[in-house]
Write a structure and sequence with these properties.
Helices cover 69% and strands 10% of the residues. The chain has one domain: Outer membrane efflux proteins (OEP) (Up-down Bundle). The chain is elongated. The N and C termini lie close together (11 Å). Strand 3 and strand 4 form a beta hairpin. The relative contact order is 0.14. Helix 3 runs antiparallel to helix 4 and helix 4 runs antiparallel to helix 7. It contains ten helices and four strands, in the order αααββααααββααα. It has a four-stranded antiparallel beta sheet, with no helix packed on it.
Length: 419
């Protein structure tokens, strides 16, 4: 079973994006393999088998044959002074009958449970995909931060050598040397922290998603603007939302259960046949009987509770839809703003980079101070780091939109297509 699902994932992974380009992401077939091996996905698949068995139970119903066997001894004093004793026995077989309408509702309940399990399996796949995407970009961001701080350390080391050389030649003061050493120490501390965060992010990926390779990240791709309107994306996310589909399923299940409880206000009768022998076999009795429970307050209360539960689940469904629509709108605007912010930060990084280069040339010509140069380099480094992180943020939010609209890693739909 597991290999069958995996073959479906691999066979359809190439079409999961519908032609979308996915730079800076792991290969879809690898993601499919990693997600399939996740314990939470396997647990969701196992729950599907539970609901299959539950459907069989509901379809069969708890209407079983029951056998009654009894024995007794009769004493008779019909003849004065003589006590007669007779062994007697009785045997009965009976079975409750499911009244019309209840069987179809039981079948619907079983089918709804199976459908809910399938939806939950898709939801587990989707939520694990979300988690992987978030952890992956956390790792990419820490990589970018570590690389940027490594560049800054290398630049300050080169700068420190230049300052020491100038001090030896009498062109720089001891104060400037101390300033250069302090700036280098600060950058080295930031690099140490960045490497620690990078190691932590990588370890988190390895342990949460065993088998996911972590190659050296390549060049960060340029983000693209978000096309379409807010309504387009919100409607698409609502259409593919597993959470909303589960809420709808809960409402449907509660409505069917309410109908079933309403039918249960009329109890199921039991019919039976019985045979008995009296006076040690002198008489044999054969008969049939019907047993009908009398409905009481408990059945009415159970029906009322089921109706109230159906109303409650319908409100929860509406609340779920409202929540997802709000979150989707926020995601759309965040993704759009992230692209605009990246463009602005790229311009700032380019300008501050040129300013740092100009300040460096001025310092070499003796027209500026080391403090000016260190400040310019610090601003340029911060701008470059902000640009890289913003670039990754724009990519991540765009991929999140694609993921929530099932245009990225839509393995749950691929599985259903193969069933």
């Amino acid at each position: 079973m597991k290999r069958t699902i995996f073959s479906l994932l691999l066979g359809l992974a190439g079409t999961a994006m519908g032609g979308e380009s996915t730079p800076n992401l792991p290969a879809a077939d690898i993601v499919g393999r990693v997600l399939l091996d996740s314990p939470s996905i396997q647990a969701a698949a196992s729950q599907g088998r539970v609901e299959e068995a539950n459907r069989t139970r509901l379809e069969a119903g708890q209407y079983e044959w029951n056998i009654r066997l009894g024995g007794q001894q009769r004493r008779s004093n019909q003849t004065p002074g003589i006590e007669e004793r007779y062994k007697q026995w009785n045997l009965a077989i009976e079975r409750p009958l499911r009244l019309p309408g209840k069987s179809s509702l039981d079948n619907e309940l079983g089918a709804t449970g199976v459908t809910q399990a399938e939806t939950a399996h898709g939801d587990a796949l989707h939520e694990n995909s979300r988690g992987l995407l978030k952890s992956w970009f956390t790792w990419l961001k820490e990589n970018a931060a570590a690389e940027q701080w490594a560049k800054q350390v290398a630049s300050l080391e080169k700068q420190g050598k230049s300052v020491r050389r100038r001090q030896q030649l009498g062109d720089a003061s001891r104060l400037e040397s101390i300033q250069a050493e302090a700036a280098l120490a600060q950058a080295q501390a930031q690099l140490t922290h960045a490497k620690a965060r990078l190691q932590g992010a990588g370890e988190d990926l390895r342990r949460r998603y065993p088998g996911l390779p972590l190659p050296a990240p390549g060049e960060i791709a340029a983000p693209v603007p978000i096309e379409g309107t807010e309504a387009d994306w919100v409607n698409a996310i609502l259409e593919h939302s597993h959470e909303l589909e589960l809420a709808r399923g809960d409402t449907r299940h509660a409505q069917i259960l309410a109908g079933r409880s309403s039918h249960d206000r009329i109890p199921d009768p039991s019919i039976g046949l019985h045979v008995s022998q009296e006076r040690a076999g002198e008489g044999t009795i054969v008969g049939a009987y019907i047993s009908i429970p009398l409905s009481g307050d408990a059945r009415r209360a159970a029906s009322d509770a089921a109706l109230a539960q159906a109303t409650a689940t319908s409100y929860r469904e509406a609340a779920t839809r409202q929540k997802i629509a709000a979150e989707s709108a926020v995601l759309y605007h965040s993704a759009s703003a992230a692209f605009a912010a990246w463009q602005t930060s790229r311009t700032a990084a380019e300008q501050l980079g040129r300013a740092a280069e100009m300040t460096a040339r001025a310092y070499q010509l003796g027209e500026g101070t080391l403090n000016d140069l260190l400040a310019a380099n610090r601003l340029a480094n911060e701008a470059a780091l902000s640009m890289h992180l913003g670039q990754l943020e724009a990519l991540e939010l765009r991929y999140r939109l694609l993921l929530d609209t099932h245009r990225l890693w839509a393995f749950d739909e691929e599985k259903q297509a193969g069933n």
